[in-house]
Amino acid sequence: MAAELHELKPKESEKITINLGFVDLGHIDLLVRDGFYTNRTDFIRTAIRNQLERHAEAARNSVVRKQLDLGISHYSREALEAVRASGDTLDIRVLGLATIAADVSPELARATIGSLTVLGALHASAAVKAALADRIK
C-alpha cells in the first residue's frame, strides 16, 4: 500500500525553538539592522536553506539509501483497513510530514503499522502515537 504523496507547500511548516549565544544573536541583529535580512526569522531560514543546499547531494543519497518517502504521506482509516484485510503491515519511512487520519483507532494503527520512521513531523492523535510508541524510530 503506497501512501498518498504531496509536495510540501511553503506555508506548511512546523515551529521549532533554538537557543543562540548572545554574540551570535547580536550578529544576526546587526545584519537585520543593516538591511541584509528583514528579521531574525528571515536570517535563520536563509541559513538553513543554504546549509540544506550545501548538503543536498548527501541528503539525496541518504533518502535513497534509507528508502524514505519524500513529502507528505497520509494514511487514512480506509487505507489501513485495506492493509489489515490483506494481512500485511507497513514499514513507514517518511522525510517530511506523515499524517495518520484522526479516525484511525490505536488498535488499527498497531495492527497495520510495523514500524514508523519520520524525519520531520508526525501528525496523529495522542492515542495513536502512544499505541505506536514502541514502533517509532
Automatic annotation (TrEMBL):
It comes from the Bacteria. Transmembrane segments: none annotated. GO terms for biological process: regulation of DNA-templated transcription. Pfam families: RHH_8 (PF17723). This is CopG family transcriptional regulator.
